[in-house]
Amino acid sequence: MNVLAEIKQRFAGVLGSYAESNNVESLLAMIKPAQDSRFGDYQANCAMSLGKRLSRAPRDIAAEIVEKVQLDDLCDNVEIAGPGFINLTIRDDYLAQQVVQALADDRLGVPAVTTERTYVIDYSSPNVAKPMHVGHIRSTVIGDSLARTLKFLGHQVIRDNHLGDWGTQFGMIIYGYKHFVDLDAYAVNPVAELSRLYRLVNQLVDYYKSKLQLDLLLEQIKIRQEKIEELSALDLTGDESQDKKLKKSRQRAATQLDQAKSNYEAVDQKLSAIDNDATLSQLVLAHPDIAKSVLLETAALHAGDEENVKLWKDFLPKCRADIQKIYGRLDIEFDVEYGESFYHEMLSGVVQKLRDQDLATDSKGAVCVFLEDFDTPMIVQKSDGAFLYSTTDLATIQYRVAQWQPDEILYVVDHRQSEHFQKLFAVAQSWIADSVQLRHISFGTVLDEHGRPYKTRSGSAVGLEGLLDEAVAKALEIVSADSGDGNSEYALTTQQCAEVANAVGHGAIKYADLAHNRTSDYVFSYDKMMALEGNTATYMQYCYARVQSIFRKGEVDLEQIRVTADSVNLDHSAERLLALTLARYAEALDEVLEDYRPNQLTSYLFDLAKRFSSFFEQCPVLQAEDDAIKLSRLRLCDLTARTIAHGLDLLGIGVVQQM
Ligand code: ARG
Questions:
Q1: How far apart are the first and last CA of the chain?
Q2: How far away, in angstroms, is 210 Cα from ligand 1 center?
Q3: Would you say residue 655 lies in a domain?
Q4: What total of structural domains would you count in the chain?
Q5: How far is the CA of 385 from the centre of ligand 1 (A)?
Q6: Residue 345: which domain range?
Q7: Residue 109, domain member (yes or no)
Q8: Would you call 156 exposed, middle or buried from its count of C-beta atoms within 10 A (0-12, 13-18, 19+)?
Q9: Is the CB of 125 under 6 A from ligand 1?
Q10: pLDDT tens, 356-388?
Q11: pLDDT tens per residue across span 529-547
Q12: Is 136 close to ligand 1, i.e. is its CB under 6 Å away?
């Protein structure tokens, strides 16, 4: 049962008599859980808005609404407060009934949706020629959690890993393989060798790019210096506001010059590092056209060049297997993994169709779609004939629509691609006559403790595998320290410790990511994410394990307490608050889907775990005053543990019986 949905349903008819049907939804949205339990459990603020609209006293309207809405079986106190708030307090027997029903239900009382929709979720989608790095966590875990939640609520979900398996990165490793491969290393660990080749070629390409950049930066420094001279030649006028402006401009010019100088130095340092390295500097000299050659290798691959296709076919399964290792560890699965290469054959058709529909036009040799609200067009084919990321994305939408007729496609991709998706959606909406909704589920960056993007010392992105290893190692330290102090009820075996460390380490990383509002950046910190107290997976897992330990101690027959449940006692305020929170699980999941934010679920779980903690402090379970209360409290414990485990599972996180 969804209590909030039930309340809204009761209000809907009555509110309908005050408002146009299209306004009822917005009035219903003003019914919410109360922020402060002194004002009841739920609060309806619609009378204020109606008062304004109808020029009547909100309190009168509130009184009328309360008079008409049928709430007797649901609420035992309905109060009008302040200017016209309607405060609702749920009846204890109603709450107890919710707990009883949830106890006997595998879905924990969460109803499936009545209108099933079909979703395609495009997530993780790494470029496969390089190892996965810290930046891939977000898309992977947010997408996975959304898929799990949508499925649980009864929707059709197609989980699609849109691998970057066809782009310039393959031109790089093909070039690298042809010129620099160490075949012995490739035989031992192909992916490590390929990623070495990728980094090396990237470094050489970057060298020449930086050289060009250096000249531009020098030019920029000159311009900014001149600007400063120009500004310092101006005399102060004595007019306060004008002088203030001038001083500001001087200051700004000085900062801009500093910035240009430090940019120059950074690039210069990068170049000197290569110049001073005997091997690298020779390679640089020997490959002056590397940037162009890499593009040619990519083009040859796309044109079906035998050798390049053969190499690509050799590399791809190896790269995929490497990525699969990470997915295996993180328990991530997909329904399809076509990747960009799958759409290659369709791209010329896409461009042709866009032309036929007069959406695409030739511009300076390229084929472009001009868009009303954007300064630059979307290029779908370059003058050398090459297709682009956008072209593939258009083909992909076309394919998905034909194949699955989805109601909605979610793209879980970082915020830097916002403009790409805005353009893509604009083109797709006028191109594909289908009502499919397209949504960019954007997210922020993972930062280090200084607030900069999380990078290794050498400046490259932190590898995901190493990150996971470190989290598991740290978790193992915590677990081993805890179980070695002799206070644990049963010491864990080495094997059990390893299992717990796996669940805790991986869980911590996933949870820390999901618990942040997806659109914000967040700071990556092992210490914070594994804290035993606070909004962490570790705290939830600990809470779950604590309940299991109560059950073990009390030798509780869980099946028995679930099916025989006829009621629970909510006399103690901590029991009541816990039951109220348990009854809100379905609401929390609705909140997740409202704007595709898994942090709504982590907040709920944190709330639940805190409520459980205070219940546990105040209400003895195994030592309860009588058997009936003990049984009732065991039932609250059971439902709490199951809700935590279930919620964590929707986040892709496991629990352990003991830690
Ligand atoms: N491979 C891309 C990248 O690493 C992300 C792909 C996202 N999905 C899409 N349909 N464009 O940046």
A1: 33
A2: 26
A3: no
A4: 4
A5: 22
A6: 118-128+135-168+308-446
A7: no
A8: middle
A9: yes
A10: 999 999 999 999 999 988 999 999 999 988 999
A11: 999 889 999 999 999 999 9
A12: no
